[in-house]
């Protein structure tokens, strides 16, 4: 079911350009909003066809179903309820009578380390020219459409999803534009089309994606060309096989996420099937992104940091880390009171830097001594 969003005039004037109060969380944009007068944090996600609200948040607002719709997730599909939002405000943009889907966003919130109340999808985003400035941490909505600067990329639309063609060493692949993920990925379809002997430099197993317990691989792609510009040594996930969800579609070869997009000031003109990439001279590559020990973690129900995935081969797998282990301290500093970002910074850094970590495995406490290593795309 398509969502129809009616933009209304605020105080008699529709503001031409609006800078939403936004937060750049590791490459994904969250905006402050008010939904029917209640404060909300919404994820801007070009990978989502339709805008949606977290089911629990919709219940707290007292929203009632006005219909049903199909929802397509990466690894599943389902029926869900459609709710009517009478008012949505994000600074100077005021929208009325939005039909939104509902879903459980708990896994997404845990992965980001920030609670999110909903997702702004392409049904909303395509009504504006949207500019993402990752370095500044700002997003701008402009209601005018016209000439834009930057490397022009023509998008292909299928329903309310938008795809860009990427060339992998002579192999063209169809990638879904997805600002809602900070980790670009290959589907099994895309993986099968690549000549692995020429394209893959290194491989890590055990990477976990939100919303599934099945793990994927992490690979280093030697060269990717988009438009007429080539980029080297790009880490990407290889998603596990699935028979349901949009990753089951053989026409979806992968996701193009913000880990690639954040090196640009991105201008998105979905109404005209266009994307413009302007090099961001303020961008500084995260040299330590994969200089780490090889675990993924999230806060559990007790507030402790639990290991969600152990990559292999890595220092963590060599040291015997297991899913479910709790990280209690790093180099003598307790993780109590740390944010997800705080702990991430502790576990990344210069290759060779040693870490002493206190771990709880079930009822057992142990201290692990290990060193950070550059895991991929060295």
UniProtKB/TrEMBL annotation:
The record's section on Gene3D superfamilies has: 2.30.42.10, Acid Proteases (2.40.70.10)
Q: Sorted alphabetically, which keywords does the UniProt record give?
A: Hydrolase, Protease
GO BP terms, alphabetized: proteolysis; signal transduction
Q: Where does it sit, as one GO cellular component term?
A: outer membrane-bounded periplasmic space
The PDZ domain covers 282-347
Q: Which PROSITE patterns does the record match to this protein?
A: ASP_PROTEASE, PDZ
One MF term in the entry's GO annotations:
aspartic-type endopeptidase activity
What SUPFAM superfamilies does this protein map onto?
Acid proteases (SSF50630), PDZ domain-like (SSF50156)
What is this protein called in UniProt? Answer: Putative aspartyl protease
């Amino acid at each position: 079911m398509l969502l129809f969003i009616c933009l209304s005039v605020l105080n008699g004037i529709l503001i031409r350009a609006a800078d939403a109060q936004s937060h750049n969380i590791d490459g994904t944009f969250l905006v402050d909003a008010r939904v029917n007068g209640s404060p909300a944090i919404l994820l801007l996600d070009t990978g989502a066809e339709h805008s949606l609200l977290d089911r629990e948040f919709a219940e707290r607002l007292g929203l009632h179903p006005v219909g049903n719709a199909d929802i397509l997730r990466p690894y599943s599909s389902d029926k869900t309820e459609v709710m009517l939002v009478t008012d949505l405000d994000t600074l100077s943009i005021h929208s009325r009578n939005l039909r939104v889907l509902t879903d459980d966003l708990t896994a997404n919130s845990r992965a980001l380390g920030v609670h999110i109340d909903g997702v702004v999808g392409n049904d909303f985003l395509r009504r504006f020219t949207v500019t993402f400035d990752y370095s500044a941490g700002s997003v701008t909505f402009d209601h005018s459409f016209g000439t834009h600067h930057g490397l022009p990329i023509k998008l292909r639309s299928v329903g309310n999803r938008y795809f860009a063609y990427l060339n992998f060493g002579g192999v063209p692949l169809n990638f879904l534009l997805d600002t809602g993920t900070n980790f670009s990925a290959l589907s099994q379809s895309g993986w099968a089309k690549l000549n692995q002997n020429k394209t893959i430099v290194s491989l890590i197993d055990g990477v976990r994606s939100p919303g599934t317990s099945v793990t994927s691989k992490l690979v280093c792609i030697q060269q990717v060309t988009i438009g007429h510009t080539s980029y080297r040594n790009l880490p990407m996930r290889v998603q596990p096989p699935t028979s349901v969800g949009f990753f089951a579609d053989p026409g979806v070869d992968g996701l193009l996420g913000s880990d690639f997009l954040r090196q640009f000031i991105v201008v998105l003109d979905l109404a005209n099937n266009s994307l413009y990439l302007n090099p961001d001279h303020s961008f500084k590559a995260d040299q330590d992104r994969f200089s780490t020990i090889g675990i993924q973690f999230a806060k559990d129900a007790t507030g402790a940091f639990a290991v969600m995935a152990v990559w292999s081969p890595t220092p963590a797998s060599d040291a015997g880390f297991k899913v479910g282990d709790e990280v209690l301290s790093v180099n003598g500093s307790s993780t109590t009171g740390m944010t997800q970002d705080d702990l991430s910074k502790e576990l990344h850094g210069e290759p060779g830097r040693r870490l002493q970590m206190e771990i709880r495995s079930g009822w057992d406490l142990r201290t692990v001594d290990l060193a950070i290593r550059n895991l991929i795309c060295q």
